[in-house]
Amino acid sequence: MDQRLAGKVAIITGSTSGIGRSSAELFAEHGARVVVNGRRKELGREVVAVIEAAGGEAIYVPGDVKQPEVLQELVSQCMDRFGRIDILMNNAWTGTNRSLSDLEPEDWDESFALIVKAAALGSKYALPHMIAGGGGAIINVSSVHGVLASRSFLPYDAMKAALVNLTRQMAVDYGQYGIRVNALCPGRIITERSSARIATQPEQEVLQTLVYPLGRPGTMREAAYAALFLASDEASFVTGHALLVDGGLTAQLADSVGAHVEENLRAMDTQDDQD
């Protein structure tokens, strides 16, 4: 395999499952040494074991990155073990999503701390080492919710949008040091969490898939490959960009989405009649 990240070291927060885990495993396949992070120790050790079994190198640093000391520990252990930081992928997220009138102050605090503040502080602690090493790449994992809004989805929409502009601002400030900063904005990606939900609500999966021009949701591996591009030297002139990996979801006008869904529903009804 082409070692697109050979010799590089990557820290990926929230990498014990979902896009983060898939990215950790893919980065390792392409030659990166990886620092895995997440709150569930058994999953963190499992990811490291998978990477090592495939011939890669990784360490697991547990902890909740809402805590600044956990972010400092991630950077410290990375430097102690590998001596450099080339890639930082701020991926961890959580949150309670409702309409504004139904949210409590603590809902805002938790989402801000994990989505925005953790990305900012993680970058702050990693930047001196990246600058000393001659540059690097920071990937902030936002979402299609960072560019468009959804019903009853505060504060996720607000925080993911803030992450996109944080990305742009950091790109402006740190480009002079050879550091590229980009946002990854996935659409609907089937993860371990969403797979469990689909098993109990298959009809919702069908309806949500109808709005995608490609006619399906994305996979964790597809999102990870987009992250790999942003982390690699192939993206050496890409910075301050929000890369949509959304199967064409956000390319459409609202009336086009409606027509697309209606057309697909008619086709499904026809197929049911034939069956």
CATH topology: Rossmann fold
Element-by-element helix/strand order: EHEHEHEHEHEEHHEHEH
- Taking the alpha carbons of the first and last residues, their distance comes to 45 Å
Number of domains: 1
| Strand order of the biggest β-sheet | 3-2-1-4-5-6-9
- Rg over CA atoms, rounded to whole Å, is 19 Å
What does this structure look like?
The structure is a single chain. This protein is an alpha/beta fold and 275 residues long. It has helices spanning 18-29, 41-53, 68-82, 105-132, 156-174, 192-200, 202-209, 220-231, 254-274; strands spanning 9-12, 33-38, 58-62, 87-90, 136-141, 179-186, 189-190, 218-219, 242-245. The strands form 2 sheets. A 7-stranded parallel sheet has the order 3-2-1-4-5-6-9, sandwiched between helices. Strands 7-8 form a two-stranded parallel ribbon. α1 crosses α8, α3 (68-82) runs parallel beside α4 and α6 packs across α7. It is globular, with a radius of gyration of 19 Å.
Which terms would index this structure?
275 residues, alpha/beta, Rossmann fold, seven-stranded parallel β-sheet, 9 helices
Question: How are the elements arranged and paired?
Answer:
Layout: E1 9-12, H1 18-29, E2 33-38, H2 41-53, E3 58-62, H3 68-82, E4 87-90, H4 105-132, E5 136-141, H5 156-174, E6 179-186, E7 189-190, H6 192-200, H7 202-209, E8 218-219, H8 220-231, E9 242-245, H9 254-274
Parallel strand pairs: 1-2, 1-4, 2-3, 4-5, 5-6, 6-9, 7-8
Helix pairs in contact: 1-8, 3-4, 4-5, 6-7
